[in-house]
């Protein structure tokens, strides 16, 4: 067993009990499963459901939790009720995570569990992530960060553990598709979600539909571009029906946090 995995189990054992923010992505699934192995029913996995998260992802998280026997619940979060989140300034994620961690802390107190933990890993420290500030302010632990686990290492260990998420594409809430300053509305979020669901149905695994008003800027892995080009007219018609006037394929391809590029260019 790798020393980092041993270290992670030791950290979780010393925590005693924990509520895990469990989105169903690579990192949080790995953390939730290892926490369950170490702590049993003293580990509770909690998935947030809201318009910001595709329903298919919530269902997938629930299925994985049931398969691995996790102690598990779904909660409803209300990010869109906060005008500071809706305004979509560069600190938007702070308010999203604050809402999530506030609810998780309430659950921890009610259940008598010592800690709230998220699935942030070491690689997350290199990008603009205001949610980390919320975690620090609210005393939320990040055990994967604490033992220095990277995304690639987490995928490797997840595969060894038989987790179906080991090669799952990266996830992010649908609000991350809007440029900063563009108001986050239920209508726009729904449009983006429908567009991405449709593109995935064509066989594209990693996709982002970046919303720029009348324009949908599609990011996919370079190897998936041929799929979109082969069905170009069909895709244009479908996305125009959803309300977009212009549909573009970003030749740089998918990259995490591409809408943060404008922040880096200003620094």
Notes on the structure:
The strands form two sheets. A four-stranded parallel β-sheet has the order 3-2-1-4, sandwiched between helices. Strands 5-6-7 form a three-stranded mixed β-sheet, covered by helices on one side. With 267 residues, the protein is α/β, with parallel strands linked by helices. The model has no long low-confidence stretch (mean pLDDT 94). Helices cover 46% and strands 13% of the residues. It starts with a helix and ends with a helix.
Outline: globular
> Rg, please?
19 Å
The average pLDDT is: 94
* Proportion in β-strands: 5-15%
Trace the largest sheet across and list its strands: 3-2-1-4
Q: How many β-strands, per DSSP? A: 7
* Major sheet characteristics: 4 strands, parallel
Give helix % range: 40-55%
Distance between the termini: 42 Å
Low-pLDDT stretches: none
Q: What structural class should be given to the helix and strand makeup? A: alpha/beta
Quaternary form: single chain
| SSE pattern | HEHEHEHHEHHHHEEHHEH
- Count every helix, treating DSSP H or I runs of 4 or more residues as helices: 12
